[in-house]
Amino acid sequence: MSQSFLTEIPSLDSEGILLLPASRPEVRDVVPVPQSEEEAVLLRYAVVLKNTTSRAIIAYYVRWRFVDANGEVTTSGIEGKSFPSGGSIPPHGAKFLSCDSGIGLGRGRPIVMSGRVKDLWDRRLQFYPAQRSIEASVELAVFDDGTAVGPDGAGRLPILKAWMDAERDFARMALAENSAVSLRQRVQGALDQGLDALPRDQPRSIGSLSVQAAAAASYSECYKFATAWLASNVVRWINESGEDRAIDALARLTSKSYPVLRKKE
Fold first, then answer.
1. CB-based contact 20:50 (threshold 8 Å)
2. Separation of alpha carbons 57 and 123, rounded Å
């Protein structure tokens, strides 16, 4: 792979968390093989988040900071969360991360470059060379014991906590219903409440709930939309497989061990 074009990559080395350019030989087995010249170019700006500890990482936030020739700054972030045992990144594991995953980078199969897809790729390929500097950094990482490390300048820890609390609380609340009818009514009500709370310029859709939860500026706002998004999943489980299967899935959520999230002093 070609040399990385990232100018700086601050890691959390003292915490056992490394952020490495995807071009480094020691992370080659984690980085997808480029399927085209275009992919090979974008991989120069990708990273690998490496966990060298004996604890799983259950959540993280990695940020890219771009400064163009005029000094204008833009940022882009990737957030991952997985609260069950095992975590997003297991002990001594690693994860490939890229700002361009949303346009298909790293899927391991050729991408048909036509129409809107080609336009998106062309924009990304033109964007990077126009930057004077590009920095990737680990802003936040949460271990499976709930310990959070990193500067967290974007204030993501309360948002991650809201997602975790919403999952736990909603599953328990739904399982407390004593009939299939009341279960369906409860989850549909929670879904409708979230859809009704969406801003008027947002489509009244399930996708908008996830977007609003991720973009929330406070714990309470994220909790509200995350709960509705979870309710939408339960509605789908009921419609596709019936109430019994939905109850089984909810029971698996309530059996998880949810840590108490806390910032390391």
1. yes
2. 33
Q: How far apart are the C-alpha atoms of 36 and 240, rounded to whole Å? A: 38
Report how far residue 229's alpha carbon sits from residue 213's, in angstroms, rounded to the nearest whole number: 8
Task: State the average pLDDT over residues 233-258.
Answer: 89
Q: 49, 37, 50, 51: which is closest to 1 by C-alpha? A: 37
For 242, half-sphere exposure in the C-beta direction (CA atoms, 13 angstrom radius) is 2
Pairwise CA distance, residues 104 & 48, whole Å = 17
What is the distance between the alpha carbons of residues 206 and 93, in angstroms, rounded to a whole number?
A: 32
CB 172 within 8 A of CB 183: no
Spans of all domains in the chain:
13-149, 157-263
pLDDT of residue 6 exceeding 70, the answer is no
Looking at 79-83, 97-101, 135-139, which range is the least confident one?
Answer: 79-83
Give 154-169 pLDDT, tens digit per residue. Answer: 899 999 999 999 999 9
pLDDT category of residue 212 using cuts at 50, 70 and 90: very high
Give long-range contacts, CB 8 A cutoff, 24+ apart: 122-125.
Answer: 124/42, 124/100, 125/38, 125/41, 125/42
**Angle at CA of residue 136, ends 82 and 112, nearest 5°:** 75
Segment 244-252 long-range contacts (CB within 8 Å, at least 24 positions apart): 246/183, 247/175, 247/183, 250/171, 250/174, 250/175, 251/171, 251/175
For residues 134 and 216, is the Cβ–Cβ distance under 8 A?
no
Q: How many CB atoms within 10 Å of residue 122?
A: 12
**What is the rounded CA–CA span in Å between residue 13 and residue 94?**
14
